Amino acid sequence: MSDTLAAQRREKIGSRASMRLRAEGLVPAVLYGHKEAAVSLSLQSTELRKSLAHKAKVVNLSGDASGQAIIQALQWDTFHRELLHVDLLRVDAGERVHVTVPLETKGEAVGAVEGGVVTMVVDHIEIEAPPASIPEVLHLDITNLHLGDSMSASQITDLPEGAKLLTDADTVLVHCVPPAGAPALDGPAAASESPEVIAKGGEEEKDGE
Amino acid sequence: MALMPKRVKHRKSQRGRIKGNATRGNRVIYGEYGLQAVEGGWISAQTIEAGRIAAQQYVRGEGRLYIRIFPSKSVTSIPLETRMGKGKGEPDFWAAVVKPGTVLYEVAGISEAAAKICFARLAHKMPVRVRLVRREAI
């Protein structure tokens, strides 16, 4: 599903102008790709957040920009509350694009019942697909994951038609390991009373007074 | 035993100022839930250890705790009833410098409800205000 975002061309660029835009409820954006000139745009924050809420990857642009674009990068503030900037990449319906898709687990692992901890090693994977068939999220069925086992990228089953996995097929995505608990802090650093001081210029510097 | 560096270039450091927000170490990377500092401050090695012990019981059986900060700053102090002057004091404790937004701890392998309880207990030990954050998809 692709949403339509109304884009306005941005004449004033720079951090001060961007800050003023954000105060008005707009988000600064840039549209590039297809060997055309990059265009500075501004998007409505509320519309954009609605699209991001359902993890939309492809959007249709209207207003001062047209065509389809992929949300290539998002910049958030430190606390992940305010959207600072969006990168949009021009795409055509017929072309194949490289995108990063979030990964979610499905089901309850057998290993968790056996006393293991199911940990997601990688939470997103890269695929190549036509814009129309980019999934919002990919799922990995972990119901048969036993303690000590792992699942790799090749075991993703809901890859859409025509999509190609770019992440290495052997990449471990999820594993089920015995619980590690809290890290023990009684290493060599903790055993010593005070840290060793690195001498600046060898023996001479040490004694030199 | 509390954390401290193995080797240092200088035994004593200047106090410094905590300016701005954390631009690194401000996302949950290893676990599913994290404890993020909302304000800046120094967190001593003893406090980091106290937090680890407080969280330990909630992750012992099933989960995993990650400590994302390290006390690399030495803090000096002058002994009591000492006249002013005569140079800088001796190192007293080690502290991690925390900017607003820094993720202090992370947990993996436990439910959100358990993570909330774990971090609520851990938050009481912290000298800075904190909040629970989830791992965000890119």
TrEMBL record, chain A:
One of the GO biological process terms: translation
Top-rank taxon, per record: Bacteria
GO cellular component, one term: cytosolic large ribosomal subunit
Keyword terms: Ribonucleoprotein, Ribosomal protein, RNA-binding, rRNA-binding
Domain Large ribosomal subunit protein bL25 beta residues, every copy: 97-179
Keyword rRNA-binding recorded: yes
Keyword Lipid biosynthesis: no
Gene3D superfamilies (UniProt xref): Ribosomal protein L25, beta domain, Ribosomal Protein L25, Chain P
Region (Disordered) residue spans: 183-209
Domain Large ribosomal subunit protein bL25 L25: 5-88
Matches recorded under InterPro entries: Rbsml_bL25/Gln-tRNA_synth_N, Ribosomal_bL25/Gln-tRNA_synth, Ribosomal_bL25_b-dom, Ribosomal_bL25_C, Ribosomal_bL25_long, Ribosomal_L25_dom, Ribosomal_uL5_bac-type
GO MF term list: 5S rRNA binding; structural constituent of ribosome
Assembly mode: Part of the 50S ribosomal subunit; part of the 5S rRNA/L5/L18/L25 subcomplex. Contacts the 5S rRNA. Binds to the 5S rRNA independently of L5 and L18.
PANTHER family, per database record: RIBOSOMAL PROTEIN L25/GLN-TRNA SYNTHETASE, ANTI-CODON-BINDING DOMAIN-CONTAINING PROTEIN, RIBOSOMAL PROTEIN L25_GLN-TRNA SYNTHETASE, ANTI-CODON-BINDING DOMAIN-CONTAINING PROTEIN
Family (UniProt): Belongs to the bacterial ribosomal protein bL25 family. CTC subfamily.
This protein's name: Large ribosomal subunit protein bL25
Native source organism of the sequence: Botrimarina colliarenosi
Phylogenetic classification of the source organism: Bacteria, Pseudomonadati, Planctomycetota, Planctomycetia, Pirellulales
TrEMBL record, chain B:
CDD domains in the cross-refs: Ribosomal_L16_L10e
GO molecular function: rRNA binding; structural constituent of ribosome; tRNA binding
Recorded superkingdom: Bacteria
Entry's Gene Ontology BP terms: translation
PROSITE patterns hit by this protein: RIBOSOMAL_L16_2
GO-annotated cellular components: cytosolic large ribosomal subunit
Keyword terms, alphabetized: Ribonucleoprotein, Ribosomal protein, RNA-binding, rRNA-binding, tRNA-binding
Quaternary structure and partners: Part of the 50S ribosomal subunit.
Its biological purpose: Binds 23S rRNA and is also seen to make contacts with the A and possibly P site tRNAs.
Family, per entry: Belongs to the universal ribosomal protein uL16 family.
Record protein name field: Large ribosomal subunit protein uL16
Species of provenance: Botrimarina colliarenosi
Classification of source organism: Bacteria, Pseudomonadati, Planctomycetota, Planctomycetia, Pirellulales
